[in-house]
């Protein structure tokens, strides 16, 4: 359990530096999705709310291996219009 808290603290500290606001770029939002106890993995998403059509990236941090996998363009920012 101590590794989970340490991993969450590392993730929060890494991405706390990237939370910045400006009139052009906008904020970057990090959403912690959850923790999978079977694979010992923390899932979180990063969305750049800039003036672009940037999509959300999914990050999978494996605590046991101390490795991170990034899935780019995991989700679209807006719902498609019908």
What's a concise summary of this model?
The chain is built from one helix and four strands, in the order αββββ. By secondary structure, the chain is α+β, with helices and mostly antiparallel strands.
What is the element layout, followed by pairings?
Elements: H1 2-16, E1 28-36, E2 41-48, E3 56-62, E4 67-75
Antiparallel strand pairs: 1-2, 2-3, 3-4
Tell me about this structure.
The model has no long low-confidence stretch (mean pLDDT 78). The protein has one domain (2-75). By secondary structure, it is an alpha+beta fold. The chain is elongated. The longest helix is centred in the first third of the chain and has 15 residues, at 2-16. A hairpin with a 4-residue loop joins β1 (28-36) and β2 (41-48). The chain contains 1 helix and 4 strands. Strands 1-2-3-4 form a 4-stranded antiparallel beta sheet, with helices on one face. Helices cover 18% and strands 40% of the residues. 4% of the residues are buried.
Shape, principal axes of CA atoms? elongated
Query: Which runs of at least 5 residues are low in confidence (pLDDT < 50)?
Result: none
Q: Report strand %.
A: 35-45%
End-to-end distance: 46 Å
The total tally of domains equals 1
Number of distinct helices: 1
DSSP, total strands:
4
Helix content: 10-25%
Radius of gyration in whole Å, from Cα?
Answer: 14 Å
- Biggest beta-sheet profile: 4 strands, antiparallel
């Amino acid at each position: 359990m101590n590794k989970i808290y340490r991993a969450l603290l590392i993730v929060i500290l890494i991405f706390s530096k990237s939370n910045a606001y400006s009139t052009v770029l906008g904020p970057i939002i990090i959403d912690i999705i959850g923790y999978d106890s079977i694979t010992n993995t923390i899932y979180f998403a990063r969305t750049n709310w800039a003036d672009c059509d940037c999509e959300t990236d999914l990050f999978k941090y494996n605590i046991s291996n101390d490795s991170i996998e990034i899935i780019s363009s995991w989700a679209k920012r807006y719902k498609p219009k019908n």
